[in-house]
Design goal:
About 60% of the residues lie in helices and about 15% in strands. The chain has 16 helices and twelve strands.
Length: about 425
Amino acid sequence: MKRMILVAILAAGLYGCTDRTVALVEGEAILESEVKKHLSGINPDLLKRVGEEKLKQSMLEGMIEQRLVLLKVRDEKFDTRADVLKRWAPVERDLSLRYFLNEYLPRRYPVSENALLADYGLKRETFKIDGEVRARHILVHTGSGGHSDLEALRMINDVARQLKPDGSNFGELAREHSECPSSADDGDLGFFGRDRMVKPFEEAAYALAPGKFTRQPIRTMHGYHLIMVEEKRDDEYAPFEQVRPELERDRNLNQMAAAYRVVTHEKGINSASPEAIVGSIEKIGFKYRAADFYRDLDELIGIGTSLRVRKGGATEREKAVHEMLMARVFEDRIDALEMRKDSEYMSFIKRVQGEFIAREYLEKVVFGPIALAPADLAGMPGGGGAEAAAFRERALEEKKNSAYGRLIEELKSRYSVIIK
């Protein structure tokens, strides 16, 4: 459990400001604001169930452990290893681009409230959250493993004739006759939105008023259904404040794309030649070769995703080219605005680099050599399969937790830890 707290903290990042010191690790302060920042990202249900004070203590403990791991990393000069720095380089580039767009640019060039409200009005439909339906159903299967079409239709009509006019026995009939696993819940499917069900089912459910049911069976690829709607939620629109960061990003992106004259080239995108020009940035005289585009994709988003883009349609490739061109624009603006000299950015990237390297150390040095011995597999279900795989996973996790616990005990005896 302790190791999981540390991993969560490493993944989330730390945020600090001048305030009360709650702990010192080898003389380095952990601030109260850092703990509160982590706490603000906790699921409200978990916060209520476990309690704020208990979670605060767990967070602080995890942050202390993180600092201890970082001290060991630096003592062993793991953070200067060429392979570690090589893995960090694309992560740093990606984080820099995200920081520029989401943090630095809005701080340096804030967009006016009126402009954002105008954009919100124009794009309001894109922020629409479709209403949902809660329904029950009774299903008689057809096709492979099911009944013949005529037999299924006869069976579902027999059930329909048993329905009371007000549908009050729908759940009872679903439990008795439905061939869907939801029969155990009286046919209740819970709430679902658009594009979650097959089309004929969705259309029938959305057409019904709460408390009403289909008088005639609905035919889908699964068989014949009777459907009863329990509740409906109306369409909603995401509030302005919720989508404000997105509006600000879109406006900044559009302005930069226009200023730099970013252009994608359809002919090059559809060409098989690695020398084809897939896009350009006219302001800085940059022409994007297909070979360079796919190399950048591999580095930034991973070879697996890159292959999907290569095999995807022209529209997907064009979108990816535009995004990579915009990354070049960001880098040009980052250099022009000297963002890397900004104190807040320097603090951010230094902190995240430390967290990245600490994760690398745990995975490569502490957990990497761990293997399961025959004694660890005593009691494992035979025959392989999912149960055996789950057993192995639990056993490996237990060994990792034990190794992590021993590491923290060693570090606490080596370095000074003071809790205020």
